[in-house]
Amino acid sequence: MKNKTLVVLALFVAGIFLNSCSSLQNANSSQKGAGIGVAAGAALGALIGGKDNRAAGALVGAAVGGGAGAIIGKQMDKQAEEIETTMPGAEVVRSEEGIQLILDENADVRFEFDSSALTSASQTNLGKLVEVFNRYPDTDILVIGHTDSDGAESYNQTLSEKRAASVVGFLKSNGIQAARLSSVGMGESQPRATNDTKAGKAQNRRVEFTITANEDMVNAAKAQAGEQ
């Protein structure tokens, strides 16, 4: 029964994600619980690409639930709206108590060819995000690098790690505290689209941000909700 319930919830949340007209897909912060959190994570993993998705796992793993979770969710709603306004070409997905931000060539976040160096346009766009991130200091940011399937798998893995680290380095150099930041590379293992077309490869060459509450935000939300 538990597994059947989770499947139904996952399908329900997936329908919300996939049928929304906006790239910003807000979950109802007052209706979050453990079951919904798992379902939302499953739907997010399917949407972003690849099972065992690192981004979806981070969001589900950081879930708090209860009244504190609802408070955190509302703060994340606000931050997600600001990100979407700041970077209209980005894909912003709200899931449980966190945010998944997907930056690909549509958001004009690119790297120099066969390099981990950010283009000047990418630096300008990421600079806009820094302003938003600084307004929400009690969040942690995981940067995940992805590539298309061109080249050797081992090479792509290393390249994705270097590109994610390059983004973290840029954020640090522009005032984001190092303690908030971490990075990982997934290589070509989690495509969002087919690698058989140029358009598909462009979607797969991307950087994702998983934004979750840090300990200070969680403790403040629990205090506000009377759960400490």
Automatic annotation (TrEMBL):
<dbReference type="Pfam" id="PF00691">
    <property type="entry name" value="OmpA"/>
</dbReference>
<keyword id="KW-0732">Signal</keyword>
<dbReference type="InterPro" id="IPR006665">
    <property type="entry name" value="OmpA-like"/>
</dbReference>
<keyword id="KW-0472">Membrane</keyword>
<dbReference type="InterPro" id="IPR006664">
    <property type="entry name" value="OMP_bac"/>
</dbReference>
<feature type="region of interest" description="Disordered">
    <location>
        <begin position="184"/>
        <end position="204"/>
    </location>
</feature>
<feature type="domain" description="OmpA-like">
    <location>
        <begin position="98"/>
        <end position="215"/>
    </location>
</feature>
<dbReference type="InterPro" id="IPR036737">
    <property type="entry name" value="OmpA-like_sf"/>
</dbReference>
<protein>
    <submittedName>
        <fullName>Membrane protein</fullName>
    </submittedName>
</protein>
<dbReference type="GO" id="GO:0009279">
    <property type="term" value="C:cell outer membrane"/>
</dbReference>
<feature type="signal peptide">
    <location>
        <begin position="1"/>
        <end position="27"/>
    </location>
</feature>
<dbReference type="InterPro" id="IPR039567">
    <property type="entry name" value="Gly-zipper"/>
</dbReference>
<dbReference type="InterPro" id="IPR050330">
    <property type="entry name" value="Bact_OuterMem_StrucFunc"/>
</dbReference>
<dbReference type="Pfam" id="PF13488">
    <property type="entry name" value="Gly-zipper_Omp"/>
</dbReference>
<keyword id="KW-0998">Cell outer membrane</keyword>
